[in-house]
Amino acid sequence: MFLDRIDELAMLEQLLKRRRGGELLLLYGRRRVGKTALLRHWAGQNTLPWTYWMAQKEPAELQRRKLYAALRGRAASTTTPTFASWSELWDDTAELVRDDRRILVLDELPWAIEADGAMLSALQYAWDIHFQHSNLFLVLCGSQIRTMETILSQQTPLFGRLTAQYRLQPFPFAILRQFFPAWGPEAQVAVYAIVGGVPAYLSWFDANRSLSDNIRASILAPSSVALSEIELLLSDEVRDIRTYLTVLNAIGEGAHALKDIANATLTASTNLTKYLGILQELRLVERRVPATVPPALQHRSKQGRYHLTDPFHRFYFRFLRPREAEIAYQPDSVLAEIQSGLREFVGQTAWEELARTWVFHQGMRGGLSFKPETIGSHWSRGVQADVVAVNWRERAILVGECKWGTDQVSREIIRQLIDHTVPKTIAALPDQGAGWRVTPALFARMGATVQAQALLHEHEGVLVDLLTLYNDLG
């Protein structure tokens, strides 16, 4: 089932119609994000001839034989010609495509590069001599983030040759209503907290079953691919999987400061910095700094905290890895623990992130009194603010609290927000918030009582309940 990707399909079509000669597109993204599905769907919709080839972990000679066969629309066999080098194959390909307008997708390119380090140099030569002057639309695709982004650097043969590049992202929250049309907003937020917007992960769930039944059948089943997913992801990118898993596990269990991660992993901070740097390159970990720190100072701020970027990774290290040995023989016990802790987990992850997403979109649409330049959160010894949005030029700030409880928020919570959270947060600004325009905000699943709404309105605050956020992000 192929859903959405409207913007990406439009981008590909726009590139296809430029017709200024050859196109060389680098399209990459993490595993399971839907790169192959997007490219095959797009190419299949066109009337142009197209070839899709995926590199595999095998010798370069076999890779070239299979690509030769794919270009001619047949299966490779022992009688299929072999080529001593990629240069020879590209010369043959140039003769085949000539001036025809056609699409060629080279998927999992890093495996071809690994099998023969000269592959990119040969492709660069073929592009310069043949393909850039042709009507070929050549797409280079891959999941190994570090390798694919290295292609963009000045040190690689294809530097300066690409005509376009695109990093495919997971689906936004709004797409879940297409996956699960019969599920209510609460269930959709919960599943977003568990697997995010990764298409392959969303496909684990059956829209005709409840969320709990899906967790039991798809994640806690003995044959579940979910339990080995993170190790498979890491095996594509790094060699020392154990150390990286240990670091991810420490962060997933709540160690976010560098010192705390070092203590949890028994790793020296100097070595840990290297591992964290690679995990950030892989987009598995992100370093967050309080939104009250000016942009110019964020890189060197000592307040940085490390967080897992992928929702499923957070879910895995919170609920699955600690009880991995029990899943095989008492999955119902693990399910019960997930059910008891899921509300808190959703509130601390997806609900806060969706609140920040709502602030971003409202700022872009003019729905706030200012357009945020920085969106995040704030933390210090004295206060934690879940949502903080700042416009440094206008000296305007939004300070928000997130609540995922089953009751309406009381007036006391609003009073705490206004009298404690807001002043302590703006006090962290470079000038202690003097003269800043402040907007308090509450993001509450069930909204707020009449008395709480009145107090928030009195301070020109913003109230966003689940239904409002759900509709606005739709």
> What's the total helix number?
23
Gross geometry? globular
Sequence of strands across the biggest β-sheet: 2-3-4-1-5
Q: Based on helices, strands and strand pairing, what is the structural class? A: alpha/beta
Percent range of helical residues: 40-55%
Radius of gyration: 25 Å
Report the biggest beta sheet as strand number plus sense, adding barrel if it closes.
5 strands, parallel
Instruction: Give the mean pLDDT.
Output: 94
Instruction: Tell how many strands the DSSP assignment holds.
Output: 12
Low-confidence sequence ranges: none
Distance from first to last alpha carbon: 20 Å
Strand percentage? 5-15%
Structure description:
Helix 9 packs across helix 17, helix 13 crosses helix 14 and helix 21 packs parallel to helix 22. The strands form 3 sheets. The protein has a 5-stranded parallel sheet with strand order 2-3-4-1-5, sandwiched between helices. Strands 8-9-10-11-12 form a 5-stranded mixed sheet, with helices on both faces. It has a two-stranded antiparallel sheet with strand order 6-7. The two termini are 20 Å apart. By secondary structure, it is an alpha/beta fold. Helix content is 47%, strand content 15%. 36% of the residues are buried.
